[in-house]
């Protein structure tokens, strides 16, 4: 299928956007903005009309780019972002995974920037912050899924001088979208309830680009799942993926394999060193999701698509050992002072128990513990310095990715028997009709913020709650 040009899209209702998007172009990296002398001053405008891989003028982006520019900072830096809202709806900025204050003009999810307005963020990165892969995206409640699926997301990297050099250090940010030449297509109610899935799966805004390599190259791929609701299983044919980090934290030992799994919001860094020439596929499988039984129980997902191809040239080489990256701080082992239990709610009517199927004709409640999000209410209060153990239970028939701002956690166990990683993370997929047990050190920063489902339609529908740490 050749590139037919975006001008023809939308002229017939049945044209899938993917039929017109060029494939096989060389991978493009988003523009990079790097801190100097302890500061990174950035002006970002969120607006429609971003080019997508230079081709499509209908998606939304930051400074005309989707993904937005990659921001590179170091521990101890100040990240100053002047965000201008060029959309016709509220927006704001969340620095997903950064262990920074969630208050004031920092990573504060309660700020809403009105259309046409500007807000100055000042985010102080602690000296002790781990180096790794983080990302930024809008967080204005009610608009998050629309804005992400339209293209608003970017990488945020914390660099550390002690990391070994690699031949190529690549951000691979994965989004999905449904677009016509007129712009992003809004999701219908049923797909919002299940979590929308865009028709196009994109890597750095490109459809099935080619990642070039030479045999013996050591490439670091910073994989970011910025889709609104897909849990992705990424698989590379013929070469090994050495997984060195999860959610911006270096793993105590790299795990070698050919597959990595990422829930929405998760990141993983892998090292790839191709030792023989050839062209192989990097594929992305989307885990099936099931909506509530009374919605017909339709499953979506389950397909595997080519995300990119890796094209390697050069003579075959003997495999060589991979370098070791400095391990991140080990999770705190102090005693836990408090246990809590939270429950995902996806039920009919208001005030019914989690997962109950009440009388039809009422709205469905998405929330925690039977209540939808209310920014004015504080749902949990924790003491600064405490280490808590949380059991997040999920009585619903679909898995939900649980995300807590500001305070990353260690996953102690889940009902699916997922192996533990020995490091902190900030999103965990809680299995359908299952649970996950987390150990959360509230030992870093005080403040009030949120936890939520990272299926962003669920978050917009109310599956979010507040926590104050003081
Ligand atoms: Cu990436 Cu509150 O989310
Ligand atoms: Cu959810």
Question: What does it look like?
Answer:
With 470 residues, this protein is mainly β. It folds into three domains: 6-158, Immunoglobulin-like, CATH 2.60.40.420; 168-313, Cupredoxins -  blue copper proteins (Immunoglobulin-like, Sandwich), CATH 2.60.40; 338-469, Cupredoxins -  blue copper proteins (Immunoglobulin-like), CATH 2.60.40.420. The chain is 4% helix and 43% strand. It contains three helices and 35 strands. β18 (241-246) and β19 (249-257) form a beta hairpin. The longest helix has 6 residues, at 144-149. The termini are far apart. Residues 1-19 and 350-361 have low confidence and may be disordered. CU-O-CU linkage is lined by residues 94, 96, 137, 139, 265, 403, 405, 452, 454.
Q: Count up the domains.
A: 3
CATH fold assignment of the largest domain: Immunoglobulin-like
Count the strands?
35
Structural class category: mainly beta
Morphology call: globular
CATH H-tier superfamily of the largest domain: Cupredoxins -  blue copper proteins
Arithmetic mean of pLDDT: 88
Number of helices: 3
What binds here, in terms of ligands, is: CU-O-CU linkage, copper (II) ion
- Uncertain residue ranges: 1-19, 350-361
Q: What's the CATH first level of the largest domain?
A: Mainly Beta
Spatial strand arrangement across the major sheet:
14-11-16-21-18-19
Termini separation: 58 Å
């Amino acid at each position: 299928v050749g590139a037919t040009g975006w001008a023809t899209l939308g002229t017939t209702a049945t044209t899938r956007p993917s039929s017109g998007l060029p494939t096989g172009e060389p991978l493009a990296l988003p523009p990079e903005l790097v801190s100097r002398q302890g500061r990174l001053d950035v002006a970002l405008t969120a607006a429609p009309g971003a080019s997508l891989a230079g081709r499509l003028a209908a998606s939304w982006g930051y400074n005309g780019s989707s993904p937005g520019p990659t921001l590179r900072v170091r521990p101890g830096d100040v990240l100053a972002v002047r965000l201008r809202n060029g959309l016709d709806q509220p927006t704001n900025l969340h620095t997903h995974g950064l262990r920074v204050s969630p208050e004031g003009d920092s990573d504060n999810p309660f700020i809403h920037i009105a259309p046409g307005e500007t807000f100055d963020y000042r985010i102080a990165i602690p000296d002790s912050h781990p180096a790794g892969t983080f990302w930024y995206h809008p967080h204005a409640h009610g608009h998050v899924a629309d804005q992400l699926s339209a293209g608003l997301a970017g990488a945020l990297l914390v660099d550390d001088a002690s990391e070994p050099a690699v031949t190529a250090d690549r951000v691979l940010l994965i989004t999905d979208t449904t677009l016509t030449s007129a712009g992003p297509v809004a999701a219908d109610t049923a797909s919002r309830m299940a979590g929308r899935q865009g028709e196009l799966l994109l890597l750095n805004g490109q459809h099935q680009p080619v990642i070039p390599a030479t045999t013996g190259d050591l490439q670091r791929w910073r994989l970011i799942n910025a889709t609104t609701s897909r849990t992705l299983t990424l698989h590379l044919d013929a070469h090994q993926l050495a997984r060195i980090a999860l959610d911006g934290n270096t793993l105590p030992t790299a795990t070698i394999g050919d597959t990595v799994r990422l829930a929405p919001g998760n990141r993983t860094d892998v090292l790839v060193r191709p030792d023989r020439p050839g062209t192989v596929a990097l594929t992305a499988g989307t885990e099936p999701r099931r909506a509530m039984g009374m919605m017909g129980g339709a499953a979506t997902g389950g397909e595997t698509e080519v995300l990119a191809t890796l094209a390697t040239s050069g003579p075959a080489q003997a495999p060589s050992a991979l370098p070791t990256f400095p391990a991140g701080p080990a999770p705190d082992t102090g005693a836990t002072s408090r246990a809590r239990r939270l429950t995902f709610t996806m039920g009919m009517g208001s005030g019914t128990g989690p997962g109950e199927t009440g009388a039809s004709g009422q709205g469905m409640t998405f929330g925690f513990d039977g209540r939808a999000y209310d920014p004015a209410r504080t749902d949990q209060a924790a003491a600064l310095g405490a280490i808590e153990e949380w059991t997040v239970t999920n009585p619903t028939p679909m898995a939900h990715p649980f995300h807590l701002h500001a305070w990353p956690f260690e996953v102690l166990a889940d009902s699916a028997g997922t192996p533990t990683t020995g490091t902190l993370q900030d999103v965990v997929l809680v299995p359908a009709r299952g649970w996950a047990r987390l150990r959360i050190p509230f030992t870093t920063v005080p403040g009030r913020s949120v936890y939520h489902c990272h299926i962003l339609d669920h978050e917009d529908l109310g599956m979010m709650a507040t926590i104050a740490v003081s």
